């Protein structure tokens, strides 16, 4: 049963909305429902988080873990790297000193240097007219 709005206005002492206004309210209500449906479609229907949110959370946590581990590793290895560089520099200096000492030892142990040194300091000269003889006779023995 449908009652027109003009008859309702006449029977009731209060001012009721006109039929045009009621039509506008119905149209607005349709748009409200449409907007609510669109909003509700974009929101997950269940209380569980969707897969995309889980992937984002896992990615952010793994990135945070990676960042913290890199900072920790760099903090531990940086002083060790400086110590290693210092030790390598010291090793290179010691290798150079060792090379110089080996050259000096080789020069000092050279037979020619020893001869020249003995001739200059002690006036000892080696004569080339000495010969070494090997005697194979068992009856000849050196004096004691």
Automatic annotation (TrEMBL):
The keyword Membrane is assigned to this record: yes
Membrane spanning residue stretches: 53-72
Keyword Transmembrane helix among UniProt keywords: yes
Keywords assigned by UniProt, alphabetized: Membrane, Transmembrane, Transmembrane helix
Protein name, per record: Septum formation initiator family protein
Organism: Candidatus Dojkabacteria bacterium
């Amino acid at each position: 049963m449908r009652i027109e709005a003009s008859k309702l206005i006449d029977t009731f002492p209060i001012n009721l909305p006109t039929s045009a206004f009621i039509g506008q309210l119905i149209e607005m209500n349709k748009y409200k429902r449409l907007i609510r449906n669109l909003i509700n479609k974009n929101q997950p229907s269940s209380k569980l988080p969707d897969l995309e949110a889980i992937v984002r959370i896992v990615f952010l946590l793994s990135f945070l873990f990676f960042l913290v581990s890199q900072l920790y590793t760099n903090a531990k290895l940086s002083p060790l790297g400086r110590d290693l560089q210092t030790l390598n520099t010291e090793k290179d200096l010691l290798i150079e000193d060792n090379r110089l000492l080996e050259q000096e030892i080789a020069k000092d142990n050279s037979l020619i240097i020893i001869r020249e040194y003995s001739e200059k300091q002690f006036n000892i000269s080696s004569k080339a007219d000495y010969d070494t003889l090997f005697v194979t006779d068992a009856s000849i023995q050196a004096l004691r």
